[in-house]
Amino acid sequence: MNMMVTKTSENRQQLADIFGGDCSRIARIRTVLDEVVLSDMNCNDQRVRTCTEACETIEKVLEDMGLGWCLKKAQDEQKASFTRRRSSIDREDLQKAVLQIEAQATGATEAEVEAVQVVEVEERLSPKAKKAADAWAECYDEDFVKRVLACQQPGELQALESEAKASKATKLGNWMIWMVHRAHLDDPTLVKFDFTNLKMPEGNVEPLISPKLAVAMESNTHIEHLLMGCTNLQDQEAAILAVSLRSNRSLKVLNIDTNVIQPLTLESIANGTSVNEALQELRCNNTANGRLVTEAFLRALKSNPSLCKLGYPVTDAYFRGEIDKQLTRNNDAARKRRLEEKRRKEAGEAESEAAETKGYPHPPKADQQPERSPERIKEVKETVKEVLEVKEVITKKQELEEAPQLPEAEPAMLSEAGPTTETSPELKEAAVEPAEPCQAEAEPSPVAEDELKEPQAMTEEPCDEPERAGSSLKEARSKVSASDCEHARTDIPGTIEAFLGEGSKTSAPLPMRNLRGYLYKKSPGARLLKSWDWRYFVLHEGRLIWWRRDRDIPADEVFSHADPEGCKGFINFKVSRARIMPDEQNPLVFAIESVDGKWQEGSLKDMSDAQRTFEFDCTKSAHTREEWMDALRSTQQ
Protein backbone atom coordinates (compact mmCIF):
# COMPACT_ATOMS: atom_id res chain seq x y z
CA MET A 1 0.00 0.00 0.00
CA ASN A 2 2.81 2.41 0.87
CA MET A 3 4.54 1.51 -2.36
CA MET A 4 1.46 2.50 -4.39
CA VAL A 5 1.22 5.82 -2.55
CA THR A 6 4.79 6.74 -3.52
CA LYS A 7 4.10 6.18 -7.24
CA THR A 8 4.10 9.19 -9.54
CA SER A 9 1.02 10.60 -11.21
CA GLU A 10 1.81 8.71 -14.41
CA ASN A 11 1.27 5.40 -12.64
CA ARG A 12 -2.00 6.29 -10.89
CA GLN A 13 -3.82 4.02 -13.30
CA GLN A 14 -2.20 1.05 -11.59
CA LEU A 15 -3.54 2.32 -8.24
CA ALA A 16 -7.00 2.64 -9.75
CA ASP A 17 -6.78 -0.93 -11.05
CA ILE A 18 -5.97 -2.24 -7.57
CA PHE A 19 -8.24 -0.11 -5.35
CA GLY A 20 -10.58 1.44 -7.92
CA GLY A 21 -13.61 -0.04 -9.66
CA ASP A 22 -16.28 -0.43 -7.00
CA CYS A 23 -13.71 0.62 -4.30
CA SER A 24 -14.77 -2.31 -2.14
CA ARG A 25 -11.21 -3.36 -1.30
CA ILE A 26 -10.07 -0.04 0.17
CA ALA A 27 -13.45 0.40 1.87
CA ARG A 28 -13.13 -3.01 3.55
CA ILE A 29 -9.62 -2.20 4.82
CA ARG A 30 -10.73 1.19 6.13
CA THR A 31 -13.74 -0.33 7.94
CA VAL A 32 -11.59 -2.94 9.70
CA LEU A 33 -9.08 -0.29 10.80
CA ASP A 34 -11.84 1.92 12.18
CA GLU A 35 -13.53 -0.88 14.10
CA VAL A 36 -10.45 -2.53 15.59
CA VAL A 37 -9.93 -2.04 19.35
CA LEU A 38 -6.40 -2.53 20.71
CA SER A 39 -5.56 -3.83 24.18
CA ASP A 40 -3.72 -1.75 26.76
CA MET A 41 -0.50 -3.54 25.94
CA ASN A 42 -0.74 -2.72 22.17
CA CYS A 43 -2.52 0.63 22.35
CA ASN A 44 0.63 2.44 21.18
CA ASP A 45 1.18 0.18 18.17
CA GLN A 46 2.20 2.43 15.25
CA ARG A 47 1.16 0.00 12.54
CA VAL A 48 -2.53 0.83 12.87
CA ARG A 49 -1.83 4.56 12.58
CA THR A 50 0.45 4.04 9.55
CA CYS A 51 -2.15 1.92 7.73
CA THR A 52 -4.88 4.48 8.44
CA GLU A 53 -2.78 7.31 7.02
CA ALA A 54 -2.03 5.25 3.89
CA CYS A 55 -5.77 4.56 3.43
CA GLU A 56 -6.57 8.26 3.70
CA THR A 57 -3.97 9.07 1.04
CA ILE A 58 -5.38 6.47 -1.37
CA GLU A 59 -8.93 7.71 -0.77
CA LYS A 60 -7.90 11.27 -1.71
CA VAL A 61 -6.26 10.01 -4.89
CA LEU A 62 -9.39 8.04 -5.81
CA GLU A 63 -11.55 11.11 -5.19
CA ASP A 64 -9.30 13.17 -7.46
CA MET A 65 -9.81 10.54 -10.15
CA GLY A 66 -13.61 10.90 -9.88
CA LEU A 67 -14.33 7.81 -7.82
CA GLY A 68 -15.51 9.61 -4.69
CA TRP A 69 -19.15 8.56 -5.06
CA CYS A 70 -18.21 4.88 -5.54
CA LEU A 71 -15.90 5.08 -2.54
CA LYS A 72 -18.66 6.51 -0.32
CA LYS A 73 -21.11 3.81 -1.40
CA ALA A 74 -18.59 1.02 -0.81
CA GLN A 75 -17.77 2.31 2.67
CA ASP A 76 -21.47 2.34 3.65
CA GLU A 77 -21.92 -1.22 2.38
CA GLN A 78 -18.86 -2.52 4.21
CA LYS A 79 -19.93 -0.93 7.49
CA ALA A 80 -23.43 -2.47 7.18
CA SER A 81 -21.92 -5.87 6.38
CA PHE A 82 -19.56 -5.65 9.34
CA THR A 83 -22.47 -4.78 11.64
CA ARG A 84 -24.48 -7.78 10.37
CA ARG A 85 -21.57 -10.17 10.95
CA ARG A 86 -21.10 -8.90 14.49
CA SER A 87 -24.80 -9.19 15.29
CA SER A 88 -24.90 -12.72 13.88
CA ILE A 89 -22.08 -13.75 16.20
CA ASP A 90 -23.96 -12.29 19.15
CA ARG A 91 -27.11 -14.03 18.01
CA GLU A 92 -25.36 -17.42 17.92
CA ASP A 93 -24.11 -16.93 21.47
CA LEU A 94 -27.59 -15.95 22.55
CA GLN A 95 -29.09 -19.03 20.92
CA LYS A 96 -26.60 -21.27 22.69
CA ALA A 97 -27.45 -19.68 26.04
CA VAL A 98 -31.17 -20.12 25.36
CA LEU A 99 -30.62 -23.79 24.55
CA GLN A 100 -28.81 -24.33 27.80
CA ILE A 101 -31.53 -22.59 29.82
CA GLU A 102 -34.24 -24.61 28.10
CA ALA A 103 -32.32 -27.84 28.69
CA GLN A 104 -32.04 -27.05 32.41
CA ALA A 105 -35.70 -26.07 32.62
CA THR A 106 -36.92 -29.26 30.97
CA GLY A 107 -34.63 -31.41 33.16
CA ALA A 108 -32.36 -32.46 30.35
CA THR A 109 -29.25 -34.34 31.40
CA GLU A 110 -25.78 -32.90 31.16
CA ALA A 111 -24.94 -35.39 28.45
CA GLU A 112 -27.65 -33.98 26.21
CA VAL A 113 -26.37 -30.42 26.76
CA GLU A 114 -22.84 -31.50 25.92
CA ALA A 115 -24.10 -33.26 22.84
CA VAL A 116 -25.81 -30.08 21.68
CA GLN A 117 -22.60 -28.12 22.23
CA VAL A 118 -20.54 -30.72 20.39
CA VAL A 119 -22.91 -30.54 17.44
CA GLU A 120 -22.61 -26.75 17.38
CA VAL A 121 -18.81 -26.97 17.52
CA GLU A 122 -18.76 -29.47 14.70
CA GLU A 123 -20.96 -27.21 12.62
CA ARG A 124 -18.51 -24.34 13.08
CA LEU A 125 -15.43 -26.44 12.25
CA SER A 126 -14.08 -26.26 8.77
CA PRO A 127 -13.87 -29.47 6.72
CA LYS A 128 -10.14 -29.61 7.40
CA ALA A 129 -10.69 -29.20 11.15
CA LYS A 130 -13.42 -31.85 11.13
CA LYS A 131 -11.03 -34.25 9.49
CA ALA A 132 -8.38 -33.52 12.12
CA ALA A 133 -10.95 -34.00 14.89
CA ASP A 134 -11.95 -37.39 13.50
CA ALA A 135 -8.30 -38.47 13.34
CA TRP A 136 -7.67 -37.27 16.87
CA ALA A 137 -10.67 -39.20 18.23
CA GLU A 138 -8.76 -42.38 17.47
CA CYS A 139 -5.73 -41.27 19.53
CA TYR A 140 -7.27 -41.38 23.00
CA ASP A 141 -9.58 -43.46 25.17
CA GLU A 142 -12.55 -41.60 26.66
CA ASP A 143 -12.70 -43.84 29.71
CA PHE A 144 -9.01 -43.23 30.50
CA VAL A 145 -9.44 -39.48 29.99
CA LYS A 146 -12.33 -39.40 32.46
CA ARG A 147 -10.26 -41.22 35.07
CA VAL A 148 -7.39 -38.75 34.56
CA LEU A 149 -9.64 -35.70 34.91
CA ALA A 150 -11.20 -37.18 38.06
CA CYS A 151 -7.80 -36.99 39.84
CA GLN A 152 -7.50 -33.96 42.10
CA GLN A 153 -4.07 -34.65 43.64
CA PRO A 154 -0.73 -35.38 41.94
CA GLY A 155 -0.38 -38.61 43.90
CA GLU A 156 -3.55 -40.01 42.33
CA LEU A 157 -2.03 -39.67 38.86
CA GLN A 158 0.87 -41.92 39.80
CA ALA A 159 -1.47 -44.92 39.72
CA LEU A 160 -2.16 -44.21 36.03
CA GLU A 161 1.49 -43.70 35.04
CA SER A 162 2.16 -47.24 33.83
CA GLU A 163 -1.06 -47.33 31.80
CA ALA A 164 -0.37 -43.93 30.21
CA LYS A 165 3.19 -44.84 29.21
CA ALA A 166 2.10 -48.23 27.88
CA SER A 167 -0.47 -46.62 25.57
CA LYS A 168 1.90 -43.91 24.30
CA ALA A 169 2.76 -45.81 21.15
CA THR A 170 -0.84 -46.58 20.16
CA LYS A 171 -2.89 -43.96 22.02
CA LEU A 172 -0.68 -40.85 22.12
CA GLY A 173 -3.60 -38.71 23.29
CA ASN A 174 -3.87 -40.64 26.57
CA TRP A 175 -0.27 -39.88 27.48
CA MET A 176 -0.51 -36.23 26.40
CA ILE A 177 -3.66 -35.56 28.42
CA TRP A 178 -2.12 -37.33 31.41
CA MET A 179 1.05 -35.20 31.19
CA VAL A 180 -0.86 -31.93 30.81
CA HIS A 181 -3.04 -32.80 33.81
CA ARG A 182 0.13 -33.36 35.86
CA ALA A 183 1.25 -29.85 34.93
CA HIS A 184 -2.22 -28.55 35.79
CA LEU A 185 -2.06 -30.14 39.29
CA ASP A 186 1.53 -28.84 39.76
CA ASP A 187 3.08 -32.28 40.22
CA PRO A 188 6.35 -31.78 42.18
CA THR A 189 7.99 -34.71 40.35
CA LEU A 190 7.39 -33.13 36.93
CA VAL A 191 10.45 -30.95 36.33
CA LYS A 192 11.03 -31.52 32.60
CA PHE A 193 8.00 -31.31 30.27
CA ASP A 194 9.06 -32.65 26.86
CA PHE A 195 6.67 -32.78 23.87
CA THR A 196 9.44 -32.34 21.25
CA ASN A 197 8.43 -33.59 17.77
CA LEU A 198 5.05 -34.80 19.06
CA LYS A 199 2.23 -33.22 17.10
CA MET A 200 -0.46 -31.77 19.34
CA PRO A 201 -4.00 -31.19 18.08
CA GLU A 202 -5.20 -27.65 17.59
CA GLY A 203 -6.88 -25.93 20.50
CA ASN A 204 -10.33 -25.93 18.87
CA VAL A 205 -10.06 -29.69 18.31
CA GLU A 206 -8.78 -30.74 21.77
CA PRO A 207 -8.87 -28.09 24.53
CA LEU A 208 -7.35 -30.50 27.11
CA ILE A 209 -3.80 -30.25 25.75
CA SER A 210 -2.27 -27.05 24.35
CA PRO A 211 -4.80 -24.50 25.76
CA LYS A 212 -4.82 -26.21 29.16
CA LEU A 213 -1.02 -26.40 29.24
CA ALA A 214 -0.62 -22.71 28.36
CA VAL A 215 -2.94 -21.73 31.21
CA ALA A 216 -1.36 -24.18 33.68
CA MET A 217 2.11 -22.65 33.24
CA GLU A 218 0.94 -19.48 34.96
CA SER A 219 0.60 -21.19 38.35
CA ASN A 220 3.02 -24.12 37.96
CA THR A 221 6.00 -23.93 40.35
CA HIS A 222 7.98 -27.08 39.49
CA ILE A 223 8.44 -27.31 35.71
CA GLU A 224 11.90 -25.97 34.81
CA HIS A 225 12.20 -27.21 31.20
CA LEU A 226 9.28 -26.72 28.78
CA LEU A 227 10.27 -28.26 25.44
CA MET A 228 7.63 -27.62 22.77
CA GLY A 229 9.75 -27.71 19.61
CA CYS A 230 7.88 -28.78 16.46
CA THR A 231 4.66 -29.64 18.31
CA ASN A 232 2.08 -27.78 16.16
CA LEU A 233 1.71 -25.05 18.78
CA GLN A 234 -0.78 -22.55 17.36
CA ASP A 235 -0.75 -18.80 17.58
CA GLN A 236 -3.73 -18.63 20.00
CA GLU A 237 -2.10 -20.95 22.55
CA ALA A 238 1.24 -19.16 22.19
CA ALA A 239 -0.48 -15.86 23.06
CA ILE A 240 -1.87 -17.44 26.24
CA LEU A 241 1.60 -18.79 27.05
CA ALA A 242 3.02 -15.27 26.70
CA VAL A 243 0.67 -14.05 29.42
CA SER A 244 1.51 -17.02 31.66
CA LEU A 245 5.24 -16.27 31.42
CA ARG A 246 4.72 -13.00 33.28
CA SER A 247 3.60 -14.86 36.42
CA ASN A 248 5.71 -18.01 36.22
CA ARG A 249 8.73 -18.11 38.56
CA SER A 250 10.17 -21.59 38.02
CA LEU A 251 10.65 -22.02 34.24
CA LYS A 252 14.32 -21.91 33.20
CA VAL A 253 14.30 -23.26 29.63
CA LEU A 254 11.61 -22.64 26.98
CA ASN A 255 11.81 -24.14 23.47
CA ILE A 256 9.09 -23.26 20.92
CA ASP A 257 11.07 -23.85 17.71
CA THR A 258 9.27 -24.56 14.44
CA ASN A 259 5.70 -23.66 15.40
CA VAL A 260 2.91 -21.57 13.86
CA ILE A 261 3.50 -18.31 15.72
CA GLN A 262 2.88 -14.84 14.29
CA PRO A 263 5.22 -11.85 14.84
CA LEU A 264 2.80 -10.05 17.16
CA THR A 265 2.49 -13.12 19.39
CA LEU A 266 6.25 -13.64 19.39
CA GLU A 267 6.65 -10.03 20.46
CA SER A 268 4.28 -10.69 23.36
CA ILE A 269 6.39 -13.69 24.37
CA ALA A 270 9.51 -11.48 24.35
CA ASN A 271 7.75 -8.94 26.56
CA GLY A 272 6.75 -11.74 28.93
CA THR A 273 10.33 -12.98 29.25
CA SER A 274 11.50 -9.49 30.20
CA VAL A 275 9.73 -9.77 33.58
CA ASN A 276 10.40 -13.49 34.14
CA GLU A 277 13.59 -13.45 36.21
CA ALA A 278 13.85 -17.25 36.36
CA LEU A 279 14.07 -17.88 32.59
CA GLN A 280 17.65 -18.55 31.44
CA GLU A 281 17.22 -19.94 27.91
CA LEU A 282 14.69 -19.20 25.15
CA ARG A 283 14.62 -20.79 21.69
CA CYS A 284 12.16 -19.68 19.00
CA ASN A 285 13.82 -20.50 15.67
CA ASN A 286 11.74 -21.04 12.51
CA THR A 287 8.75 -19.16 13.86
CA ALA A 288 8.53 -15.50 12.85
CA ASN A 289 10.80 -12.49 12.75
CA GLY A 290 10.76 -8.78 12.16
CA ARG A 291 12.23 -5.53 13.41
CA LEU A 292 9.67 -5.09 16.18
CA VAL A 293 10.25 -8.64 17.41
CA THR A 294 14.02 -8.11 17.42
CA GLU A 295 13.68 -4.88 19.39
CA ALA A 296 11.44 -6.66 21.89
CA PHE A 297 14.05 -9.39 22.44
CA LEU A 298 16.79 -6.79 22.91
CA ARG A 299 14.70 -5.04 25.57
CA ALA A 300 14.05 -8.40 27.25
CA LEU A 301 17.80 -9.14 27.44
CA LYS A 302 18.51 -5.75 29.00
CA SER A 303 15.75 -5.94 31.59
CA ASN A 304 16.28 -9.62 32.47
CA PRO A 305 19.98 -10.32 33.28
CA SER A 306 19.25 -14.00 33.99
CA LEU A 307 18.42 -14.65 30.30
CA CYS A 308 21.77 -15.97 29.00
CA LYS A 309 20.83 -17.94 25.86
CA LEU A 310 18.59 -16.79 22.99
CA GLY A 311 17.84 -18.86 19.91
CA TYR A 312 16.39 -16.39 17.40
CA PRO A 313 17.55 -15.51 13.85
CA VAL A 314 18.73 -11.88 13.66
CA THR A 315 19.57 -10.61 10.17
CA ASP A 316 20.16 -6.95 11.02
CA ALA A 317 23.86 -6.32 11.74
CA TYR A 318 23.23 -3.59 14.31
CA PHE A 319 20.75 -5.61 16.39
CA ARG A 320 22.94 -8.68 16.00
CA GLY A 321 25.86 -6.85 17.62
CA GLU A 322 23.72 -5.34 20.39
CA ILE A 323 22.15 -8.69 21.26
CA ASP A 324 25.55 -10.40 21.31
CA LYS A 325 26.99 -7.75 23.64
CA GLN A 326 24.02 -8.01 26.00
CA LEU A 327 24.26 -11.81 26.05
CA THR A 328 27.95 -11.49 26.99
CA ARG A 329 27.07 -9.16 29.87
CA ASN A 330 24.34 -11.51 31.11
CA ASN A 331 26.64 -14.53 30.99
CA ASP A 332 29.35 -12.65 32.87
CA ALA A 333 26.84 -11.61 35.55
CA ALA A 334 25.66 -15.24 35.84
CA ARG A 335 29.26 -16.39 36.29
CA LYS A 336 29.78 -13.90 39.11
CA ARG A 337 26.60 -15.08 40.81
CA ARG A 338 27.80 -18.70 40.62
CA LEU A 339 31.19 -17.81 42.11
CA GLU A 340 29.60 -15.82 44.92
CA GLU A 341 27.23 -18.70 45.69
CA LYS A 342 30.16 -21.13 45.72
CA ARG A 343 32.10 -18.84 48.09
CA ARG A 344 29.18 -18.59 50.49
CA LYS A 345 28.77 -22.37 50.40
CA GLU A 346 32.46 -22.95 51.17
CA ALA A 347 32.36 -20.43 53.99
CA GLY A 348 29.36 -22.21 55.50
CA GLU A 349 31.10 -25.58 55.26
CA ALA A 350 34.26 -24.18 56.81
CA GLU A 351 32.28 -22.67 59.66
CA SER A 352 30.65 -26.00 60.41
CA GLU A 353 34.00 -27.78 60.25
CA ALA A 354 35.64 -25.24 62.54
CA ALA A 355 33.71 -26.66 65.50
CA GLU A 356 35.40 -30.03 64.93
CA THR A 357 38.89 -28.90 63.96
CA LYS A 358 41.43 -31.69 63.72
CA GLY A 359 43.62 -31.79 66.83
CA TYR A 360 41.97 -28.79 68.41
CA PRO A 361 39.17 -29.45 70.92
CA HIS A 362 37.07 -26.55 72.15
CA PRO A 363 37.42 -25.72 75.84
CA PRO A 364 34.56 -27.30 77.80
CA LYS A 365 31.94 -25.01 79.20
CA ALA A 366 31.09 -24.75 82.87
CA ASP A 367 27.94 -26.80 82.51
CA GLN A 368 29.91 -29.53 80.70
CA GLN A 369 32.31 -30.33 83.57
CA PRO A 370 32.20 -34.00 84.66
CA GLU A 371 30.25 -34.69 87.78
CA ARG A 372 32.17 -35.81 90.88
CA SER A 373 30.92 -37.87 93.76
CA PRO A 374 30.89 -36.42 97.32
CA GLU A 375 33.50 -38.98 98.39
CA ARG A 376 35.90 -37.78 95.69
CA ILE A 377 35.37 -34.13 96.66
CA LYS A 378 36.04 -34.97 100.32
CA GLU A 379 39.23 -36.83 99.41
CA VAL A 380 40.46 -33.86 97.36
CA LYS A 381 39.80 -31.46 100.23
CA GLU A 382 41.79 -33.62 102.64
CA THR A 383 44.68 -33.90 100.20
CA VAL A 384 44.81 -30.15 99.65
CA LYS A 385 44.79 -29.61 103.43
CA GLU A 386 47.84 -31.87 103.77
CA VAL A 387 49.61 -29.86 101.11
CA LEU A 388 48.77 -26.64 102.93
CA GLU A 389 50.16 -28.03 106.19
CA VAL A 390 53.46 -28.89 104.52
CA LYS A 391 53.49 -25.42 103.00
CA GLU A 392 52.99 -23.86 106.43
CA VAL A 393 55.91 -25.80 107.92
CA ILE A 394 58.21 -24.78 105.07
CA THR A 395 57.17 -21.16 105.44
CA LYS A 396 57.98 -21.16 109.16
CA LYS A 397 61.43 -22.62 108.50
CA GLN A 398 62.13 -19.97 105.90
CA GLU A 399 61.16 -17.23 108.37
CA LEU A 400 63.56 -18.64 110.94
CA GLU A 401 66.42 -18.83 108.44
CA GLU A 402 65.88 -15.23 107.39
CA ALA A 403 65.75 -14.00 111.05
CA PRO A 404 68.94 -12.27 112.46
CA GLN A 405 71.47 -14.45 114.36
CA LEU A 406 70.95 -14.53 118.17
CA PRO A 407 73.81 -14.07 120.68
CA GLU A 408 75.55 -17.16 122.02
CA ALA A 409 73.85 -16.78 125.38
CA GLU A 410 70.42 -17.33 123.96
CA PRO A 411 70.57 -20.89 122.50
CA ALA A 412 69.26 -22.39 125.69
CA MET A 413 66.24 -20.17 125.65
CA LEU A 414 65.69 -21.02 122.02
CA SER A 415 65.91 -24.76 122.65
CA GLU A 416 63.24 -24.47 125.29
CA ALA A 417 60.86 -23.16 122.64
CA GLY A 418 61.38 -26.52 120.88
CA PRO A 419 58.42 -27.04 118.60
CA THR A 420 58.75 -23.71 116.79
CA THR A 421 62.40 -24.18 115.70
CA GLU A 422 62.80 -27.94 115.50
CA THR A 423 63.31 -29.23 111.99
CA SER A 424 60.51 -31.60 111.08
CA PRO A 425 60.75 -34.60 108.77
CA GLU A 426 58.41 -32.85 106.37
CA LEU A 427 60.88 -30.01 105.90
CA LYS A 428 63.84 -32.30 105.32
CA GLU A 429 62.05 -34.43 102.77
CA ALA A 430 60.79 -31.33 101.02
CA ALA A 431 64.37 -30.04 100.81
CA VAL A 432 65.92 -33.31 99.65
CA GLU A 433 63.38 -34.37 97.10
CA PRO A 434 62.76 -31.97 94.18
CA ALA A 435 59.17 -30.94 93.64
CA GLU A 436 57.43 -32.49 90.64
CA PRO A 437 54.46 -31.05 88.82
CA CYS A 438 51.13 -32.74 89.50
CA GLN A 439 50.07 -34.85 86.55
CA ALA A 440 46.44 -35.19 85.44
CA GLU A 441 45.86 -36.96 82.17
CA ALA A 442 49.32 -35.92 80.81
CA GLU A 443 48.64 -32.21 81.57
CA PRO A 444 50.26 -30.16 84.37
CA SER A 445 48.01 -29.10 87.23
CA PRO A 446 48.22 -25.35 87.74
CA VAL A 447 47.51 -25.70 91.50
CA ALA A 448 50.18 -28.33 92.12
CA GLU A 449 52.80 -26.36 90.17
CA ASP A 450 52.17 -23.16 92.15
CA GLU A 451 52.27 -25.02 95.43
CA LEU A 452 55.46 -26.97 94.76
CA LYS A 453 57.56 -24.37 92.92
CA GLU A 454 58.16 -22.22 95.99
CA PRO A 455 59.04 -25.05 98.41
CA GLN A 456 61.71 -26.20 95.99
CA ALA A 457 63.23 -22.76 95.81
CA MET A 458 63.13 -22.05 99.54
CA THR A 459 64.30 -25.35 101.00
CA GLU A 460 67.76 -26.21 99.75
CA GLU A 461 69.39 -27.14 103.09
CA PRO A 462 68.96 -30.66 104.48
CA CYS A 463 66.38 -31.20 107.23
CA ASP A 464 66.33 -33.66 110.09
CA GLU A 465 63.01 -35.43 109.43
CA PRO A 466 62.61 -36.25 105.72
CA GLU A 467 60.44 -39.32 105.78
CA ARG A 468 57.07 -38.05 107.02
CA ALA A 469 57.07 -34.83 104.97
CA GLY A 470 58.25 -36.62 101.84
CA SER A 471 55.62 -39.33 102.07
CA SER A 472 52.87 -36.77 102.68
CA LEU A 473 53.96 -34.69 99.73
CA LYS A 474 54.20 -37.72 97.44
CA GLU A 475 50.79 -38.93 98.47
CA ALA A 476 49.31 -35.47 97.89
CA ARG A 477 50.81 -35.25 94.42
CA SER A 478 49.46 -38.66 93.46
CA LYS A 479 45.92 -37.81 94.57
CA VAL A 480 45.50 -34.30 93.18
CA SER A 481 44.57 -33.67 89.55
CA ALA A 482 44.11 -30.42 87.66
CA SER A 483 40.33 -30.57 87.59
CA ASP A 484 40.17 -31.67 91.25
CA CYS A 485 42.27 -28.72 92.34
CA GLU A 486 39.91 -26.45 90.47
CA HIS A 487 36.99 -27.78 92.55
CA ALA A 488 39.01 -27.55 95.72
CA ARG A 489 39.89 -23.94 94.99
CA THR A 490 36.20 -23.04 94.82
CA ASP A 491 35.16 -25.14 97.84
CA ILE A 492 37.93 -24.36 100.38
CA PRO A 493 38.13 -20.73 101.52
CA GLY A 494 41.84 -20.91 102.34
CA THR A 495 43.42 -21.66 98.98
CA ILE A 496 47.04 -22.12 98.13
CA GLU A 497 47.20 -18.68 96.48
CA ALA A 498 46.37 -17.16 99.85
CA PHE A 499 49.58 -18.63 101.32
CA LEU A 500 51.77 -17.83 98.34
CA GLY A 501 50.97 -14.11 98.24
CA GLU A 502 52.04 -11.64 95.60
CA GLY A 503 55.67 -11.60 96.61
CA SER A 504 56.26 -15.27 95.94
CA LYS A 505 55.21 -15.14 92.27
CA THR A 506 58.02 -15.49 89.76
CA SER A 507 58.58 -13.11 86.87
CA ALA A 508 59.73 -15.79 84.40
CA PRO A 509 58.51 -15.32 80.80
CA LEU A 510 55.40 -17.20 79.81
CA PRO A 511 55.89 -20.21 77.49
CA MET A 512 54.91 -19.87 73.86
CA ARG A 513 51.30 -20.84 73.22
CA ASN A 514 50.09 -23.04 70.36
CA LEU A 515 46.75 -22.18 68.80
CA ARG A 516 44.62 -23.39 65.89
CA GLY A 517 41.55 -22.08 64.14
CA TYR A 518 40.05 -20.33 61.13
CA LEU A 519 40.59 -16.64 60.33
CA TYR A 520 39.97 -14.26 57.46
CA LYS A 521 43.28 -13.09 55.92
CA LYS A 522 43.38 -10.02 53.73
CA SER A 523 44.71 -10.67 50.24
CA PRO A 524 47.86 -8.79 49.20
CA GLY A 525 46.18 -7.09 46.22
CA ALA A 526 42.67 -5.83 45.38
CA ARG A 527 40.57 -8.41 43.60
CA LEU A 528 37.40 -8.21 41.58
CA LEU A 529 35.28 -10.50 43.74
CA LYS A 530 36.77 -10.61 47.23
CA SER A 531 39.70 -9.23 49.25
CA TRP A 532 39.54 -11.60 52.29
CA ASP A 533 40.40 -15.31 52.22
CA TRP A 534 39.06 -17.89 54.71
CA ARG A 535 42.13 -19.84 55.91
CA TYR A 536 43.01 -22.35 58.63
CA PHE A 537 45.89 -21.12 60.88
CA VAL A 538 48.21 -23.05 63.20
CA LEU A 539 50.46 -21.22 65.69
CA HIS A 540 53.17 -23.76 66.56
CA GLU A 541 56.53 -23.17 68.25
CA GLY A 542 56.91 -19.55 67.19
CA ARG A 543 55.57 -19.94 63.64
CA LEU A 544 52.16 -18.96 62.25
CA ILE A 545 51.32 -21.33 59.36
CA TRP A 546 48.13 -21.36 57.31
CA TRP A 547 46.44 -23.77 54.92
CA ARG A 548 43.36 -23.36 52.75
CA ARG A 549 41.36 -25.82 54.91
CA ASP A 550 42.18 -27.91 57.96
CA ARG A 551 41.77 -31.10 55.94
CA ASP A 552 44.74 -30.03 53.78
CA ILE A 553 47.17 -30.67 56.67
CA PRO A 554 48.76 -34.09 55.92
CA ALA A 555 50.00 -34.74 59.49
CA ASP A 556 51.12 -32.90 62.62
CA GLU A 557 54.75 -33.80 61.85
CA VAL A 558 54.85 -31.21 59.05
CA PHE A 559 54.90 -28.39 61.62
CA SER A 560 58.60 -29.01 62.22
CA HIS A 561 59.49 -28.78 58.50
CA ALA A 562 61.05 -25.60 57.18
CA ASP A 563 58.35 -25.34 54.51
CA PRO A 564 55.32 -27.44 55.61
CA GLU A 565 53.67 -29.43 52.83
CA GLY A 566 50.58 -27.87 51.28
CA CYS A 567 50.69 -24.66 53.31
CA LYS A 568 49.72 -21.38 51.65
CA GLY A 569 52.17 -19.34 53.72
CA PHE A 570 53.84 -18.87 57.11
CA ILE A 571 55.47 -16.26 59.38
CA ASN A 572 58.50 -17.30 61.45
CA PHE A 573 58.70 -15.09 64.54
CA LYS A 574 62.01 -16.70 65.56
CA VAL A 575 63.74 -15.04 62.61
CA SER A 576 62.04 -11.63 62.72
CA ARG A 577 60.42 -9.89 65.64
CA ALA A 578 56.90 -8.67 64.95
CA ARG A 579 54.49 -6.10 66.25
CA ILE A 580 50.87 -7.21 66.86
CA MET A 581 48.49 -4.26 66.58
CA PRO A 582 44.70 -4.21 67.12
CA ASP A 583 42.47 -2.26 64.76
CA GLU A 584 41.00 0.76 66.53
CA GLN A 585 37.89 0.92 64.36
CA ASN A 586 36.99 -2.77 64.00
CA PRO A 587 37.04 -4.86 67.24
CA LEU A 588 37.58 -8.07 65.25
CA VAL A 589 40.58 -7.06 63.12
CA PHE A 590 44.28 -7.03 64.03
CA ALA A 591 47.51 -6.68 62.06
CA ILE A 592 51.06 -8.07 62.19
CA GLU A 593 54.07 -6.14 60.91
CA SER A 594 57.81 -6.46 61.24
CA VAL A 595 59.46 -4.37 63.96
CA ASP A 596 62.37 -3.58 61.61
CA GLY A 597 60.00 -2.53 58.82
CA LYS A 598 61.07 -5.49 56.67
CA TRP A 599 60.83 -9.23 57.24
CA GLN A 600 64.20 -11.00 57.37
CA GLU A 601 65.15 -13.75 54.97
CA GLY A 602 63.39 -17.00 55.98
CA SER A 603 60.60 -15.24 57.89
CA LEU A 604 58.00 -15.73 55.12
CA LYS A 605 57.19 -18.39 52.60
CA ASP A 606 57.11 -15.80 49.84
CA MET A 607 59.83 -13.21 50.43
CA SER A 608 58.34 -10.94 47.75
CA ASP A 609 56.06 -9.75 50.59
CA ALA A 610 59.01 -8.68 52.75
CA GLN A 611 57.47 -5.26 53.47
CA ARG A 612 53.91 -6.47 53.83
CA THR A 613 51.66 -5.87 56.83
CA PHE A 614 49.39 -8.88 57.41
CA GLU A 615 45.78 -8.17 58.41
CA PHE A 616 43.41 -10.73 59.97
CA ASP A 617 39.70 -10.75 60.79
CA CYS A 618 38.33 -12.92 63.65
CA THR A 619 34.75 -12.94 62.31
CA LYS A 620 33.27 -16.46 62.73
CA SER A 621 36.54 -17.64 64.32
CA ALA A 622 36.53 -20.06 67.27
CA HIS A 623 38.75 -17.64 69.24
CA THR A 624 38.44 -13.98 70.07
CA ARG A 625 40.83 -11.34 68.85
CA GLU A 626 42.39 -11.05 72.33
CA GLU A 627 43.14 -14.79 72.43
CA TRP A 628 44.88 -14.68 69.04
CA MET A 629 46.86 -11.56 69.98
CA ASP A 630 47.94 -12.98 73.36
CA ALA A 631 49.10 -16.19 71.72
CA LEU A 632 51.05 -14.27 69.07
CA ARG A 633 52.63 -11.97 71.66
CA SER A 634 53.84 -14.99 73.62
CA THR A 635 56.16 -15.74 70.68
CA GLN A 636 57.89 -12.37 71.17
CA GLN A 637 59.08 -13.02 74.77
TrEMBL record:
SMART domains assigned to the protein according to its UniProt record, in alphabetical order: PH (SM00233)
InterPro entries registered for this protein in UniProt: LRR_dom_sf, PH-like_dom_sf, PH_domain, TMOD
Domain PH: 512-637
Main location: cytoplasm
Disordered: region residues: 334-376, 399-487
Pfam families listed in its UniProt record: PH
Keyword set, alphabetical order: Cytoplasm, Cytoskeleton
Biased composition range(s): Basic and acidic residues: 334-348, 364-376, 474-487
Biased composition (Low complexity): 403-412, 432-446
Localization (cell): Cytoplasm, Cytoskeleton
Name of the protein in question: PH domain-containing protein
Source species: Durusdinium trenchii
